[in-house]
Design the sequence.
């Protein structure tokens, strides 16, 4: 008996000695409960690996990411967005991810392609995260506004927003969000692509130039008019809350946001929300943006094998896919778990999310080799923000952005 106990004790010590601890980091608090459930399931199914969840605020998150370049301490698995990926990959801060043939074949190529460099995969997308339209059905009913159909247009959306903008019991109700529809950001860019836009930066010969063309200018003006001309959206100075907070509180009729916000709406059990089709612009087919966030393994990770095991499991294991779909989040293998996703959101018109996916645009997917992309996009955002805050005329903001973007792009190869 003593020998048996000694053997078990030895085995326990051996397991403890070989157990690996890895840190997982994300900036997305809307997924916290889902991520914690995923990690708990992973820890249970992989007793030799213990994953610690780290929710890091956006600004602090990228400060930590900068430590990857400096060679300092880092997390083992991190979220990455496509705007920042070229820089970190080019600096050698990311490790290639080795997946077996079966896992690789299961992953949607359209979303893994932007994270491939020289036939090496450096990031595994977490799943399609499309920009979507939400509506407050109670407000639509109260104001006599028809529920949007698949043939909904931008002009009809504006008309609906006008009817949905009113004052009730001293509270201002707005028709739609506006400050976060800045046209260089994912929500606003969804209208730009729908209007026929092809990208804000284009390759010319061996270099790149800014491409803030007439389509961009026209779409930007339409979105800016929601605040200053149509007055159906709160401007930056008028809003004490962000658009999603007003929608959550029942003070906004239409919200253009990401499909990942589903769990947020559960905080208000009285909110009668639903998805709506993305409106067409100028008679063209809608082409909303998909944010291809990915999991990456930093070069500084001390436990790369365990980190890659987590990355593969979260993106392809049936257990992980079900956990996400059953919580109203799109998993990596979204089409394979469509029924679970729809069952999780009964009566919410969730099928519109899948209907728009085939025509969606993976933002900046063609610019993955452009190392100065973060700096170029920052300049663009700063200049357009002057127009969105009423501190510059839109044509002037676009002109200034073009000049400064081109200056940065001249150094790009």
Sequence:
């Amino acid at each position: 008996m003593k020998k048996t106990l000694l053997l078990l004790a030895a085995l326990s010590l051996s397991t403890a000695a070989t157990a690996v601890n890895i840190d997982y980091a994300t900036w997305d608090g809307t997924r916290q409960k889902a991520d914690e459930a995923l990690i708990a399931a992973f820890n249970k199914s992989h007793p030799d690996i213990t994953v610690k969840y780290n929710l890091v605020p956006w600004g602090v998150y990228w400060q930590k990411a900068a430590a990857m370049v400096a060679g300092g301490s880092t997390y083992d698995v991190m979220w990455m967005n496509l705007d920042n990926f070229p820089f970190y990959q080019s600096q050698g801060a990311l490790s290639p991810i080795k997946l077996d043939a079966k896992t690789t074949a299961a992953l949607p190529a359209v979303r893994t392609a932007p994270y491939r460099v020289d036939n090496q995969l450096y990031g595994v997308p977490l799943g399609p995260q499309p920009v979507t339209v939400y509506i407050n059905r109670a407000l639509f009913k109260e104001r006599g506004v028809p529920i949007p159909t698949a043939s909904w247009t931008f002009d009809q959306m504006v008309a609906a927003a006008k009817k949905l903008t009113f004052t009730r019991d001293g509270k201002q109700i707005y028709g739609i969000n506006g400050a976060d529809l800045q046209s260089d950001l994912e929500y606003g860019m969804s209208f730009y692509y729908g209007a026929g836009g092809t990208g804000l930066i284009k390759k010319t010969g061996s270099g790149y130039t800014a491409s803030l063309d007439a389509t961009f200018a026209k779409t930007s003006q339409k979105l800016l008019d929601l605040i200053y001309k149509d007055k159906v959206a709160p401007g930056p100075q008028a809003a004490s809350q962000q658009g999603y907070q007003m929608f959550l509180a029942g003070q906004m009729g239409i919200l253009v946001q990401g499909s990942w916000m589903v769990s947020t709406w559960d905080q208000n059990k009285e909110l009668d929300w639903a998805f709506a089709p993305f409106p067409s612009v100028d008679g063209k087919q809608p082409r909303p943006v998909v944010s291809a966030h990915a999991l990456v393994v930093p070069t500084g990770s001390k436990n790369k094998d365990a980190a890659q095991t987590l990355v593969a499991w979260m993106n392809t294991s049936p257990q992980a896919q079900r956990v996400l779909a059953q919580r109203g989040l799109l998993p990596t293998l979204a089409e394979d778990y469509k029924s679970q996703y729809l069952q999780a959101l009964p009566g919410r018109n969730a099928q519109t999310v899948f209907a728009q996916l085939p025509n969606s645009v993976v933002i900046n997917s063609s610019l993955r080799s452009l190392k100065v992309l973060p700096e170029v996009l920052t300049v663009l955002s700063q200049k357009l923000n002057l127009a969105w805050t009423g501190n510059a005329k839109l044509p002037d903001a676009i002109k200034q952005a073009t000049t400064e973007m081109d200056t940065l792009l001249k150094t790009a190869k």
Summary: The chain has 18 helices and 16 strands. Confidence is low (pLDDT under 50) at residues 1-17. Residues 2-18 form the longest helix (17 residues).
